[in-house]
Amino acid sequence: MESYLHKDFKIQPKHRSPEASRNWKKAVGLIVKNRARRFRHVPDPDKRAEGERKKKEIQEKIRVALYVQKAALTFIEAGGSQPVTDQVEYKLSEEAEKEGFSIHPDELASIIRSHDIKVLKRHGGVYGILIKVSVVLDEGVRSSSIPTRQNVYGLNRYTEKPPRSFLVFVWEALQDLTLIILMVCAVVSIGVGLATDGWPEGMYDGVGILLSIALVVLVTAISDYRQSMQFKDLDREKKKIFIQVTRDGKRQKVSIYDLLVGDIVHLAVGDLVPADGLFISGYSLLIDESSLSGESEPVNVYEEKPFLLSGTKVQDGSGKMLVTTVGMRTEWGKLMETLSEGGEDETPLQVKLNGVATIIGKIGLAFAVVTFLVLTVRYLVEKALSNEITDWSSTDAVTLLNYFAIAVTIIVVAVPEGLPLAVTLSLAFAMKKLMNDKALVRHLSACETMGSASCICTDKTGTLTTNHMVVTKIWIGDKSINVKGNESKDVVKSEISGALDILLQVIFQNTSSEVIKDEGKTSILGTPTESALLEFGLLLGGDFDALRREFKIIKMEPFNSVRKKMSVLIAHPDGGIRAFCKGASEIVLGMCNKVIDCNGESVDLSQKEANNITDVINSFASEALRTLCLAFKDIHDSSINNDIPNDGYTLIAVVGIKDPVRPGVKEAVQTCLAAGITVRMVTGDNINTAKAIARECGILTEDGLAIEGPEFRNMSPADMKAVIPRIQVMARSLPLDKHTLVKNLRNTFQEVVAVTGDGTNDAPALHEADIGLAMGIAGTEVAKESADVIVLDDNFSTVVNVARWGRSVYINIQKFVQFQLTVNVVALMINFVSACVSGDAPLTAVQLLWVNMIMDTLGALALATEPPNEGLMKRPPVSRGTSFITRPMWRNIIGQSIYQLAVLGVLDFRGTQLLGLTGSDATDILDTVIFNAFVFCQVFNQINSRDIEKINIFRGMFDSWVFLGVMVCTVGFQIVLVEFLGAFASTVPLSWQLWLLCIILGLISMPVAVVVKCIPVESKVKTPDGYEAIPDGPGLV
Question: Which residue stretches does the UniProt record annotate as biased composition, category Basic and acidic residues (predicted)?
Answer without folding.
Answer: 1-19
